[in-house]
Amino acid sequence: MTNDDVKTGKRRYQAPRRAEQAAATRRTILAAARDLFVQHGYVTTTVAEIADQAQVSVDTVYATIGRKPVLLRALVETALSGTDHEVPAIERDYVTAIRAAGNVRDKLATYADAITSIHQRLAPIFLALRDAALQDPACAQLWTEIAQRRARNMRDFAADLRATGELRNDLTNDDAADIIWSMNAVEYWVLLIHERHWTTNKFRQWLTDAWIRLLLQNP
To answer: For residue 107, what are the contacts with CB-CB under 8 A and spacing of at least 6?
Structure first.
């Protein structure tokens, strides 16, 4: 074995370890940012405070993720995906399951289950984004972008539902998309879960039942 072989083996060993350390640092920074944004608000929270809570330097925060708007975007995207990174909607597991389902009831039940899981992660940070959007232009842009993307995704969902032949004929795809869009909003979750103290199971069952009754020809 040559010295080059030893060096190459060492590099192969160190690379995964460095990647794991980098991922752990990223998770720690995001967790700190989430806590502070939710507790104290986006506008008043500083990167220095995030770094202090994460026990890293400010430069590490910038190098690992970026400035505050990038941190907030990362928190929204990871809450949506349920992973450590952004996952496009079309690639998420629940979307694959919805498209594979053979009837509207199963599709809607799968989506209601997914929304219930997502909002448990997303609601606190999304409300922080909503409040920040009133004062910060970058956050306002992100808020608008997420809202428009969600609306586009719902139009795709409505088209998928229409393809089963089970949707009401007096509803256009845009009508169906708007109904689902309005009821899958974080604000709707907050009203029922936080204001009216519904359980998550009750919320899930309600979404499924309401969508079936509102959208199907023969509910």
So the answer is: 98, 101, 160, 161, 164
Domains parsed from the chain with CATH numbers: 1-66 (1.10.10.60), 68-219 (1.10.357.10)
**DSSP-derived secondary structure letter, 89:** G
* Inter-CA distances, 7 with 11, 15, 21, 22, Å: 6, 12, 21, 22
Residue 198, token pair as written in the block:
């519904």
Retrieve residue 116's tokens.
């219930």
**Of 215, 69, 194, whose CA–CA distance to 137 is shortest?**
69
pTM assigned to the model: 0.86
Would you write out the chain's pLDDT as a tens digit for each of its 219 residues? Answer: 555 555 555 555 567 888 889 899 999 999 999 999 999 999 999 999 999 999 999 999 999 999 999 999 999 999 999 888 889 888 999 999 999 998 999 999 999 999 999 999 999 999 999 999 999 999 999 999 999 999 999 999 999 999 999 999 999 999 999 999 999 999 999 999 999 999 999 999 999 999 999 999 987
**173 three-state secondary structure:** helix
Alpha-carbon distance of 42 to 34, in angstroms, equals 9
Q: Cα-flanking dihedrals φ and ψ of residue 167, to 5°?
A: -75, 155
**What region, left, alpha or beta, does residue 125 occupy, with left being phi > 0 and alpha being psi -120 to 50 degrees?**
alpha
